[in-house]
Amino acid sequence: MDTWNAILSRRDVRSFESRPIPAADLDQILDAARRTPSSRNSQPWDFVVVTDRDRLQALSRVWRNAVHVARSAATIALVAPDGDRSSVQYDLGQVTMSVMLAAADLGVGSGHSLVTEHDLAAEILRLPPDRFCAWLIPLGYPADGPLRPIRHPSRRAFDDVVHREQW
Predict the structure, then answer these.
(1) Cα–Cα distance for residue pair 111/158, rounded to 1 Å
(2) How far apart are CA 33 and CA 94, in angstroms?
(3) Which domains does the chain have, with CATH numbers?
(4) CB 79 within 8 A of CB 122
(5) Buried-exposed string 26-45: b where 16+ CB fall within 10 A, e elsewhere
(6) What is the DSSP string of 4-57?
(7) I want to staple 73 with a disulfide (CB 3.0 to 4.6 A). Which of 112, 134, 140, 165 is the partner?
């Protein structure tokens, strides 16, 4: 798939097939995350990839709506330095999109999950005390069929969103 088709095909997937993601594909997705630009090239992140079913089940408890994490083939935890958490959110947003587009390019579905139980996430992932888990990105093959371009996305009209030169 090329980049434009990955953009057109990417959607939030919350129900996954049970088959695993090949290690080489998972590494490619993680490399896309690693290569993401960041403010001043600070790269304020680490990634913990989880494929163990028991650990995925435990991770699904770090937010009340994270049940899909338990059923994913793999979940990537985006980990950042503790402290001023707002300063890294833009960079982590870029990482999220890099992961999701790289996954879509390989036919792998993705979603996202908030983390509200930070202490629990840190315990499950065995994070150092100066780090926190900011987001989870569950991955897997969509249970409802392969990714394909979405012809009529539920999005605001182009002309309602795009302004040229001024509002």
Answers:
(1) 24
(2) 9
(3) 3-143 (3.40.109.10)
(4) no
(5) bebbbebbeebeeeeeeebb
(6) HHHHHH--B---B-SPPPPHHHHHHHHHHHHT---GGG----EEEEE--HHHHH
(7) 140
**Pairing, β 109-110 against β 46-50:** unpaired
The continuous run of DSSP H or E covering 69 comes out as helix 67-70
Please list the pLDDT of the chain residue by residue as tens digits (167 residues).
Answer: 689 999 999 999 999 999 999 999 999 999 999 999 999 999 999 999 999 999 999 999 999 999 999 999 999 999 999 987 777 999 999 999 999 999 999 999 999 999 999 999 999 999 999 999 999 999 999 999 999 999 999 999 999 999 999 99
Rounded Cα–Cα distance for residues 40 and 3 (Å): 25
How far out from the chain centre does Cα 8 lie? 17
Q: Is the pTM of this model over 0.90?
A: yes
